[in-house]
Design goal:
With 272 residues, this protein is mainly α. It has a domain at 102-251: Orthogonal Bundle (Cytochrome Bc1 Complex, Chain D, domain 2). Helices cover 43% and strands 0% of the residues. The protein contains 13 helices and no strands. The radius of gyration is 59 Å and the shape is elongated.
Length: 272
């Protein structure tokens, strides 16, 4: 038997070792085939709908869209326009001139009397003054001025049994005859707080505003012009101190409607 040289055996072993090493080091067999190329089939393009053709706007719509818009600042001005118009109208309206005469002043003074006589003169603790009641008691304004100045208690102290018209319809009034309540004195010399001008003013208010004397009637027109009108010379003289209840009769004797004596002391009525 022929002996195989050792170098050939070593070479054969080396080849076998190399062959087994390649087999063990190789990973799992992969089937190699031509790479599968899956070609994506392009999706069929969707057919786009035909664009809608917009209908043209009617002429009046197009005109409204193209019209110039009112600016925002102008809208606020228009909102204030009615207020401006009202103020303008008020500014153009002539103001009514309120004459400061006996009636307007007397209205203010009477607020101190309303607690007893009522705001409208309907009475209460004090006598009724409205609906002609005062005119029945004092047909002459001079008598009412004298009584308001002095008050009922001074009449009692002077021994006077009645005040005002002795022939009053329904009977003459006696001091303290109304619920026993006295009429307080109002004149300054009698202990009151009113000036003679204020007493004339409040008496005019009572006679013409509350009791209903008509300043345009034949019965009361002359009295109103002399004593209670805004142009009354007597009232203006009392305000300035140029006359007084004690001197009015002499100071204004030249007036067409000559005033009677008023006085600051209790006295009988001059009514006839």
């Amino acid at each position: 038997m022929t002996e195989i040289p050792e170098h050939l055996l070593n070479r054969s072993k080396a080849r076998r070792a190399a062959g087994s090493g390649d087999a063990s080091g190789a990973g799992p067999a992969t089937t190699s085939s031509a790479p599968a190329t899956t070609e994506a089939t392009p999706a069929k393009a969707a057919t786009a709908p035909a664009p809608k053709v917009a209908k043209p706007d009617p002429a009046y719509v197009a005109a409204a869209k193209n019209r110039k818009k009112i600016p925002f600042w102008a809208m606020s001005g228009l909102a204030l326009l009615p207020i401006w118009a009202l103020l303008y109208l008020v500014a153009l309206t002539p103001s009514t001139k309120v004459e400061a005469g006996p009636l307007s002043i007397g209205t203010q003074v009477f607020s101190n009397c309303a607690g007893c006589h009522g705001a409208e003169g309907a009475g209460g603790a004090g006598r009724v003054l409205y609906q002609g009641e005062v005119l029945k008691t004092f047909p002459r304004i001079e008598d009412q001025l004298n009584f308001v100045y002095n008050g009922s208690q001074r009449f009692v102290a002077a021994g006077l049994k009645i005040y005002g018209n002795p022939n009053r319809p329904g009977g003459a009034h006696a001091p303290l005859s109304y619920n026993g309540n006295p009429m307080p004195m109002q004149g300054e010399k009698a202990g009151g707080a009113l000036t003679e001008a204020e007493i004339l003013a409040v008496v005019c208010h009572i006679r013409y505003d509350l009791s209903g004397a008509d300043p345009t009637s034949d019965m009361w027109k002359a009295e109103y012009q002399t004593w209670c009108s805004p142009d009354s010379e007597i009232f203006k003289a009392l305000e300035t101190g140029a006359t007084s209840f004690d001197t009015i009769e002499k100071d204004f004797a030249a007036l067409p409607n000559k005033p009677g004596f008023v006085g600051t002391e209790p006295r009988p009525s001059i009514a006839k």
